[in-house]
């Protein structure tokens, strides 16, 4: 049966009811549509649209209005799409971006967005004051500003519900203003001939020196930036998935019709000269001027009211996630669900900016922050669409070109309006992002970053598969470290980390056997996490095998098919001989699989010493001492030594042992080798005589790197530790390394 039992909620309704709180109580009309509509129908409609039409002409003005609304409509469509794919929480755009790209990106956009919303309150108050002084020119400007702020703050502090009720009254006032304008159709004042394309004479403030199409566009565009007024209430909506798309898009559609119609009205009622010089055309030509004045005051007041209600919600969400120090205080809610601490801080900032008396210099920056937010919302949807992840299943799907054009449009608009402020705004966002990255924020929910990076890795893997497999210039140390017990890693942790850091990778393979595998797995995971904290890409696994040799051989063969396949086998040679036979077998199998080998023999007394000096032993090259691209079993030893030199900030020395007549040729060979290998700060040393004596007489190092023979005598290798009085690593090339690359 498909019918739902009476009184039984759907699964989606149950989920929404479970996540609902007392504060989530506003519907589509009151919570989204009305505040969005009133914010868009603001001071620019009443005071600046006539100037836009006078400069650009009717067609030019319609083009500017359409272009502005297309950009914000694409953003609204992207916002609608993403809100139907996530359970949006408090914070509106901040919540959307954080749940998609992480808290760091969300916070880097959310902080400027909060400041923009806060400063916008001041701008709207100034706009209200201009309209008020038009009616009462004798009133003191500062007194008007403080009085309006006091009313706004009191309403917001009491409850958002009261603010929405007041907005219903303001909506009625604005409707009355528009009716007063539209009624002039029947009075015969619409008798002017239409100028279809303007000459862009400019503004009276600049003595009509002329402006461009894009300057006029920049004047009108901020009118369209009110689309977040409803989304800012996301944490307090009954059904944000339904309310945000329906309320926002409906408000944009109705606003667009009003702007287009009023543009036609202005082109018909007033001559061009008056349109560009008189900002009060709508008031002067309306059927009843007081109605339009009321609309102007109501529009600016409602915009300020929507912002002073919405901005603290963004701050509350930022504080809840500890985006800034001490944020917990501003995340607290009063008994009625209002973020009153956040309201107090927002009110304080508004009061300070009111006392500055002029925000015109930073007004473009406010618009930039809105545009960056819109751009990021479009970018989030564009990335999600391109990733084709199965979790991206919005119930409000949109074509892929929409978020792409929305992203490009927002970025283009930023630099059209003011390229300097655009760069400043982007720089501030980047600085905040870097700061938050260092904060290491705790993410309370999953986001799509892992999926994004996986998609990039998959794309890179596919591209790499088309390239030659053995790229000597792209060589990195990818270690496979088989482990019998976690205890083995303690002594070699530092060495392994520095053999791999910064761009290599590490695979720890534990041979668990039948006993104690659970505890062993936990220990191995702890070590993997420790390597990760040291910025070493690390993965670990347990092979349930009592046979260490078979486990290692299985790992060698299995991991050859992975993308980050290991290219070096790291083994420890214990002081006892119990495992000598299987170490021989593992070394031979590693050679057979074209793996490099690093066999580590620790000095039981000195261990790695101060990690300040490294010796690399190179076999003598007589009789020719010719340098070629094929150096023999030297490349991996030199690459390993150089990596340790850099990571330890150590002294590196290259040593060879010769008979006395070969000394000059040996030094010449080492000079050529170090020059060709681009190792200018490496010392050269030539020992004369027998190899064992040279080991004992050579300059002391904390680690000696020597070639691993094809059939090594492991007892002899152990003896080198005592002879050199240092730890030793015996190295065998795989053939894929080249120090000369």
UniProtKB/TrEMBL annotation:
Keywords: Membrane, Transmembrane, Transmembrane helix, Transport. InterPro entries: AA-permease/SLC12A_dom, CCC_C_1st_subdom, CCC_C_2nd_subdom, SLC12A_fam. It comes from Fodinibius halophilus. The lineage of its organism: Bacteria, Pseudomonadati, Balneolota, Balneolia, Balneolales. The keyword Transport applies. Residues 31-453 form the Amino acid permease/ SLC12A domain. This is Na-K-Cl cotransporter. It is found in: Membrane. GO terms for cellular component: membrane. Residues 481-608 form the Prokaryotic cation-chloride cotransporter first C-terminal subdomain domain. GO terms for molecular function: chloride:monoatomic cation symporter activity. Belongs to the SLC12A transporter family. It holds the Pfam family CCC_C_2nd_pro. It is a multi-pass membrane protein. Residues 609-740 form the Prokaryotic cation-chloride cotransporter second C-terminal subdomain domain. The chain crosses the membrane at residues 26-47, 59-82, 103-127, 139-157, 169-190, 210-231, 243-267, 287-311, 339-356, 362-383, 404-436.
